[in-house]
Amino acid sequence: MLDRQEEKKIIYKLMRELIAERRELSKQYYDLKKRLDSLNTLPNVPNIKKEPTTTSSLIEKEQIQERDAFHRKYKSAHYLPFDRVSKNILSILKQSPVPLSNKQILEKLNTEYELHVTYQNLSANILPKMLKERSLPIEKSCRGYWQYHLPKL
């Protein structure tokens, strides 16, 4: 455990780094704004192809790479509530007169309800969990096929 003085030094150091980073971002922002203003003041000539400046193209490439890395990192972090998915699956099964396969359920979830779950997650986690829930009227008709369970009167 750090003592107070060491912790204060670390916090001050981090704050200085954040300020320096913010200054650099502000500088880049104003450079881009200045470039955009200069582009807006130039006459619009459609036939002349201009070479992109290296600084703006490098910044754009970096931004694209950062955005792609962010999506790759957090793509799996997208969370769909079990209640929402299970209710939609129940609706799909209730509307169907015949039992549906995992693949058919997945296709309907993706197209009609725009819920993007993986086949693996659906077949290994969601449907077995729904089967264990006593309050959800779902049953497995045979391997890989599911149907809505009508309550007995």
Could you characterize what this model shows?
This protein is about 65% helix and about 5% strand. The chain has about 150 residues and is mainly alpha-helical. It has a 3-stranded antiparallel β-sheet. A hairpin with a 2-residue loop joins strand 2 and strand 3. The N and C termini lie far apart (about 65 Å). The model has no long low-confidence stretch (mean pLDDT about 80).
Shape from CA axes? elongated
For the record, give the distance between the C-alpha atoms at the N and C termini, rounded to a whole number.
Answer: 65 Å
Structural class: mainly alpha
Order of helices and strands: HHHEHHEE
- Find the count of extended strands (DSSP E, 2+ residues): 3
Helix percent band: 55-70%
The average pLDDT is 82
Question: Which strand-content bin applies to the residues?
Answer: 5-15%
* Biggest pleated-sheet summary: 3 strands, antiparallel
Uncertain stretches: none
The number of helical elements comes to 5
- What is the radius of gyration computed over CA atoms, rounded to a whole number of angstroms? 28 Å
Query: Which strand order spans the largest sheet, edge to edge or round the barrel?
Result: 1-3-2
